[in-house]
Write a structure and sequence with these properties.
Blueprint (H helix, E strand, L loop, with lengths): L4 H4 L5 H8 L16 H15 L5 E5 L6 H15 L5 E4 L4 E4 L4 E7 L7
Parallel strand pairs: 1-4
Antiparallel strand pairs: 2-3, 3-4
Amino acid sequence: MTVKLSELIAPSFYEVHRELKAEKYYEYWLKGGRGSIKSTFISAEISLGMIRDPEANAVVFRRYQNELHDTVFGQFEWTLTKMGIAHLFKFHVSPMQIIYIPTGQRIVLKAAVNPKKV
């Protein structure tokens, strides 16, 4: 089942989505607490950005390694499944990454405990 992006993200993110598509800014600070749909929006935008730009890859940081699988990794799986495009991606737990099958592009998930290791 495929879902429209407008059904997946909150209306408060529509303008940011348009700006991202237009490449208006290079950096965004998104506000919102739990339940604000930020994680869904961000995982959708990273994935769509990679599909649009075959040269793009992404790194997603979370403070601790043990938080990555159940939060970021799980969110990407859920979002890509809802969008109906999960079959275009391979999900690897070790090393934790998501690969866009058609081009081999990667979304790498890392802990930010030691910035020198990045």
